[in-house]
Amino acid sequence: MRQEWFKEHIRQVHVDFHMPEFPTDAINEFDAKSFVAEFVRADVNVIGVFTKCHFGNAYYPTKVGHKHSGLEGDFFGEVLQEAHRSGIKVIAYYSLGTDAYAVQQNPDWYQINEDGQVRGSAGTVWELPCLNSPYREELVIPQVLEIMNSYDMDGWLFDIPYIDGHRCFCPYCKKKFKEENGLELTVELYRDNPKIVHDFARNSAERCMQELYDLIKSIRPHVMVNCNGAWKMGESDAINATSDYGLWESQPASGSYLCHSIKARYTRNLDVPVQIMTVRFTEDWGMMSCKTPEQLKYEFASILANGGIINIGDQVLPNGRLQSGVYDVIGEAFHFVKERETFCIGTRSVPHIAVISNNTSSWYWDSGDAAMLGASKVLIEGHHQYDMFYNDAFPDLSAYRVVILPETVSLSDESLSRIRAFVKAGGVLLAAGEASLNRTSKRFELADVLGVDYLDRSPYEFGYFTENESLWKGITAIPQLLEAPFLKVRASTAQPLSWIQWPLTVPAPNRAFRYRIPPAGNVSAFPSISVNDYGQGKAIYIAAPVFSTYWNTNHYWIRSIVDALLDKYDLSKPFRVDAPTHMEANLMRSDDTTYLHLINFQNNHTGSRSASSYDPIERIWPIHDIVVQYFDDSVQEATLLPENVSLPFRRLEHGIELIVPSVHIHSTIAFK
């Protein structure tokens, strides 16, 4: 049972409380009334509250587990009661995959790595019990049952549902693995067949979560259940089936402020609500710093305007209190959200470009799929309207006008047929690199659509695009470098738009240049960019991994070339925005109104790229006089929100044009 309230309560705070027992003042100043009062004044409507932390300490009177020695009362119960009294929903947090107390008291519950060592015992919080050990039967299940029978919470969050690295060699895993597979679980087997070991560990996590889900629903069917990472891109169907809502951690300190927007553009098309979880900390969980109100407003706007649910992580002080100054900042940012949420909640994306992409199962974007990230970066900076889908899990494409296949996409025969039909019916396809390349047959599965045939690999790790005047918009009229290997393809029916220009040579001791990449040399006979007519549509092919390269190099000319291709062949754009690349545009719709969101981003200069992962946002300066064209003949009025100011516009042949006087952080134009 999935509750609608979760979609409407988007001002959420996750209150971290991983607290060791050695501080002498641990939890000695906790007071539930003053604790919850911070949330009330900050306009928070959902909080995540701890029942058990990574150290294995329980925050309620438990007969099963180990209650934190500094806690005299009932932290979870008192906060739950006070929060409900104030109209705030409560998610019960439970540390599943890390429990220092449990494994230190029961060493046979430890996960064991390939070297035969326990995962933990390093004096950190990361002491990892195995889900296949009696830890589940003797502590987790009894403790969850105890909590369920004592409290009426609104939801659950189980953290770290997986065995570390999807492999464990403890006696309990070995026993179960042999019973299920008829094989000995050994390091040698893992090296020879890692898939069978990974699948076993993943399945163990899935069955653990299913057991917890069934237990909770049998007692309180209305309570929502989730495990950290559920419903993120690439997560397993079995894990998703045990989660009524999703959670995708999203920390800009991982390297990009685009992460919130990218994740929301994926999750907004799912059947369940998904939290996009940032943090108050400038760099990582538990670092007792605080972002500026300006930064949190920007982060919240990028989640809110893209259809996501805002959740921000905080940290309780050792004494059990919250930092009031932090809630001054969070409150200012949530007041900003409250002014805007009425025209954001319940809206849906306007379909136009569908990015169909792969992704790894990593927690954070920068260790994820660079091709998907790069495609998103190109489109957001180019003010394109797009949604994102995971490999075969894309919807009916009839409402979309463009499909983009980044180089790492993995598609079934059925999905390839659907894309072929999309282009034949008049759609535009843009594919890059190995998209649709069958490595076994050495042919493109979409060769007929792309109008090119795969021939061979290149000996070079880099190369150049020859100049095409119509595509070189705003970039220098020279061959443009790509720091990635091109593919050699032959044009069958496609029209080449640019050719691969090889570098002069591969650098070697007797063939050195001033820079590690030599200048451009011979122009090859192989197209680097081509376009093909297929049915009523067109297919653009770029013979290189341009999207991952753009993410990894930030070479602006790559984005500019892709932008020019989309401008040339995407003739049905829903809008155009004349603004800098650091402004994001996104179109959402309710039953009778369409909303164009404009989000302005600016951050400080980077210091040491190797030593610092954080570029702060201290103040965002407004952008003025932004020209917007919206291509809909039926528009009768345009209103700037949240100011509720009518905007004058002039009629175009197929739509309207207006000027937005100023955008500070987030402004919205409502079209009716």
TrEMBL record:
Organism whose genome encodes this protein: Cohnella terricola
InterPro entries linked: Class_I_gatase-like (IPR029062), GH (IPR017853), GHL6 (IPR028212)
KW NAD (keyword) present: no
Any Pfam family the entry gives: GHL6
The protein, known as: Family 10 glycosylhydrolase
Assigned keywords, A-Z: Hydrolase
Source taxonomy: Bacteria, Bacillati, Bacillota, Bacilli, Bacillales
UniProt keyword Hydrolase present: yes
Gene Ontology MF terms in the entry: hydrolase activity
Taxonomy, superkingdom: Bacteria
SUPFAM superfamilies: (Trans)glycosidases, Class I glutamine amidotransferase-like
